[in-house]
């Protein structure tokens, strides 16, 4: 488990490096972080979710707050991965310190991800690589790798480092999950079913291999269901609520029995799946994007930069707009 923890630390560092690289490069190309937020605001990308109790709507203030609270509490209080990590720490005091230290890191990581999304929108707002006729990418999950290859491809080693950061985001979760699944399967299934079997580290490694193969097989199924982030949030959200309820039930009462807990878990998962999949799609439509994929010149006001967009030829033989930052001392520039 310590090897998994150190791998998570290294992968987390790569993730932050990737996010900072994307944000810094995007700000340099677009004229600063303020310009990024101004462009996002003009495009209607900065808004507060509406207050609604409609269970069929995916993005409202109520369900975003409830989802964040339930998933976070379930992860920290009842998630096998997190609990197993905390149990490897020397004592309870150090576990609490590690938990409190992780909170600002997770919050900052989520905020950096949001800023990266704004940078991607600001850069591709005039030339959407997904909706054009000769699109080089076919999913929103490919936007960040495409942005990295386009804007950082001229820097040796940086694109590979950023791609490693993207893969680290998934590998850190997968490695911890497989390790936890192997431990749970060994302790809760193999030992009770085969009490005479001398369970060793080899059995745990075999279980890790089996769960790894299962995860690879499931990845092909999940990829065909739609956007990866959306499906992962839905699936994890359907399981996080019942999992948290079981732990709260165990902490708050002693009268519950095994049959009632199992019935409650099954019922809650069925209801959550009905809410997630059965209602009609009530999500807001995608906000409009432009496909004017020609040489563009963007004037920046009240800054010392002018972002000049020029065409370049990428690996798909399709021209998209790139940005080159040049220093300019005037506050307003008109270029033909």
In short:
By secondary structure, the protein is mostly helical. The chain is built from ten helices and three strands, in the order ααααααααααβββ. Mean pLDDT is 75; it is low at 295-336.
Helix and strand layout, with pairings?
Elements: H1 2-30, H2 33-42, H3 61-78, H4 80-87, H5 92-124, H6 143-151, H7 158-193, H8 201-223, H9 228-252, H10 258-277, E1 297-298, E2 305-313, E3 319-327
Antiparallel strand pairs: 1-2, 2-3
Helix pairs in contact: 1-2, 1-5, 1-7, 2-5, 3-4, 3-9, 7-8, 9-10
Keywords: Cell membrane, Ion transport, Membrane, Sodium, Sodium transport, Transmembrane, Transmembrane helix, Transport
Subcellular location: Cell membrane
Pfam families: SSF
N-to-C series of helices and strands = HHHHHHHHHHEEE
Please estimate the helix content: 55-70%
Q: Estimate what percentage of residues fall within beta strands.
A: 5-15%
Strand order of the largest sheet: 1-2-3
Total strands: the figure is: 3
Secondary structure category: mainly alpha
> Could you state the oligomeric state of the chains shown?
single chain
What's the mean pLDDT score?
75
- Please outline the major beta sheet: 3 strands, antiparallel
Shape: globular
Number of helices: 10
Rg estimate, integer Å: 24 Å
- Contiguous low-pLDDT stretches (5 residues minimum) are 295-336
Termini distance? 61 Å
